[in-house]
């Protein structure tokens, strides 16, 4: 049964596919060509290995120097005769290159000046590569000052998200995001080694999230235009005065990042002043009213606490009422079941006055007769029943009436 091997090495029974058959035929043709080429090379090698005149010392099967270094000499060709003509169609023996001379192995000496020049060029190249990634950071530092000053401004002086990021209420979200990224590149804890960089970066992140969500955009809505015009007039007047005196140093900005910072600072100052003024204008009546409201509130709270405590006690009393009633009923039943020997109530000095509180201890008639018998002695059958009283002088009559 025919079959073939697949790529996994498994033998598949059945008809061999056409592409598998073509692959096998190509491999067979390639193998035949390789065998033919090897056979020709082996024949040429055997012919070149035959001994020639002048090589009597060469052993059988040894490769001669002529075979290795070049074709056979003319004398050898003449001695071979017809053999050389018959082998003319075969390929010549491979020619190996001569060994390298000592002069070729010696390297050219390197000029020290050229080496130093190459080192300088390499150092300049590496310096350029190292500074390529920090060009944007340096530009941000020129705009936003050094990392130390930026961290100090954010943590110690900034009072609002606008002051932290240095943007205006008119800024778009794209501008806010760009400013946040530029500041983050300077004070990011992974790149900045300033002591409070982590705290400043967190504050910048909070400010960015607050402005992005639009929570603080209404902060300067009513005063922004007025304050901006006021700061612009002041800066222009200051600059005109300095230019009038031919002084061009220390001019105040009238636009750009620094001007916006000045406007934001003036807005914060005005808002703080307004808040303090409102607190200062609070009248004595308002303070009294607040104190009265607090006192009334305290009194109401105390009254509620007292009522709650009283209700708690009443609930506890009502909850135990059934138990107390049941206990009193049991006590009354026990009292009514007792037997009273006297009808008098609390008669002082009368026997049996306390019988209503407890049961009296009594003796039966049989017990009394038995005791009387014990107090009599035998007289030899004299008297009734053969018993008589004890000796005279002993009065035990009280025992007869004692019950």
Main sheet strand line-up: 1-2
Class by alpha and beta content: mainly alpha
| Cα-to-Cα separation, first versus last residue | 136 Å
Helix proportion of residues, in percent? Answer: 55-70%
Number of strands: 4
Instruction: Report the major sheet.
Output: 2 strands, antiparallel
Average of pLDDT: 71
Classify the oligomer. single chain
Shape: flat
Number of helices: 17
Cα radius of gyration in angstroms: 65 Å
Measured by DSSP, the beta-strand proportion falls in under 5%
Task: Give an overview in words.
By secondary structure, this protein is an all-alpha fold. Among the domains are: 84 residues, no CATH class; 83 residues, Helix Hairpins; 62 residues, no CATH class; 40 residues. It contains 17 helices and 4 strands. The chain has a two-stranded antiparallel sheet. A two-stranded antiparallel sheet has the order 3-4. A hairpin with an 8-residue loop joins strand 3 and strand 4. Helix 8 crosses helix 11, helix 10 packs antiparallel against helix 11 and helix 12 packs across helix 13. The protein is flat, with a radius of gyration of 65 Å. About 16% of the residues have low confidence.
Secondary structure elements and pairings:
Elements: E1 3-5, E2 11-13, H1 18-48, H2 65-69, H3 74-80, H4 82-86, H5 102-105, H6 112-132, H7 135-144, H8 147-157, H9 161-165, H10 173-187, H11 197-212, H12 224-244, H13 256-280, H14 284-319, H15 321-336, H16 365-374, E3 377-378, E4 387-388, H17 398-401
Antiparallel strand pairs: 1-2, 3-4
Helix pairs in contact: 7-10, 8-11, 10-11, 12-13
């Amino acid at each position: 049964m025919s079959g073939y091997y697949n790529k996994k090495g498994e033998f598949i029974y059945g008809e061999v596919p056409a592409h598998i058959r073509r692959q096998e035929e190509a491999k067979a043709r390639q193998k035949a060509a390789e065998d033919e080429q090897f056979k020709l090379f082996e024949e040429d090698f055997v012919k070149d290995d035959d001994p020639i005149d002048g090589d009597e010392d060469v052993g059988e099967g040894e490769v001669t120097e002529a075979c290795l270094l070049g074709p056979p000499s003319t004398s050898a060709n003449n001695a071979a005769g017809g053999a050389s003509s018959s082998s003319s169609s075969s390929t010549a023996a491979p020619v190996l290159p001569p060994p390298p001379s000592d002069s070729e192995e010696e390297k050219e000496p390197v000029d020290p000046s050229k080496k130093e020049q190459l080192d300088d060029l390499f150092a300049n190249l590496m310096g350029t590569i190292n500074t390529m990634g920090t060009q944007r950071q340096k530009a941000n530092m020129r705009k936003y000052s050094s990392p130390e000053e930026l961290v100090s401004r954010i943590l110690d002086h900034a009072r609002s998200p606008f002051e932290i990021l240095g943007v205006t209420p008119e800024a778009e979200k794209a501008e806010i995001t760009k400013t946040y990224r530029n500041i983050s590149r300077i004070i990011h804890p992974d790149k900045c080694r300033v002591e409070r960089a982590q705290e400043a970066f967190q504050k910048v992140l909070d400010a960015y999230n607050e402005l992005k969500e639009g929570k603080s955009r209404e902060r300067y809505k009513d005063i922004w235009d007025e304050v901006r015009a006021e700061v612009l007039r002041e800066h222009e007047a200051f600059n005109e005065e300095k230019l009038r005196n031919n002084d061009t140093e220390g001019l105040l900005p009238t636009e750009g990042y620094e001007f916006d910072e000045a406007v934001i600072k003036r807005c914060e100052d005005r808002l703080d002043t307004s808040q303090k003024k409102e607190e200062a204008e609070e009248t004595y009546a308002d303070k009294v009213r607040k104190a009265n409201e607090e006192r009334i509130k305290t009194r109401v709270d105390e009254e509620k606490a007292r009522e709650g405590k009283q209700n708690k006690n009443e609930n506890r009393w009502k909850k135990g009422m059934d138990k107390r009633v049941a206990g009193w009923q049991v006590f009354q039943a026990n009292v009514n079941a007792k037997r009273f020997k006297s009808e008098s109530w609390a008669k002082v000095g009368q026997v049996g006055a306390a019988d209503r509180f407890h049961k009296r201890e009594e003796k039966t008639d049989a017990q009394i007769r038995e005791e009387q018998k014990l107090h009599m002695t035998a007289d030899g059958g004299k008297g009734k029943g053969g018993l008589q009283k004890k000796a005279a002088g002993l009065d035990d009559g009280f025992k007869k009436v004692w019950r």
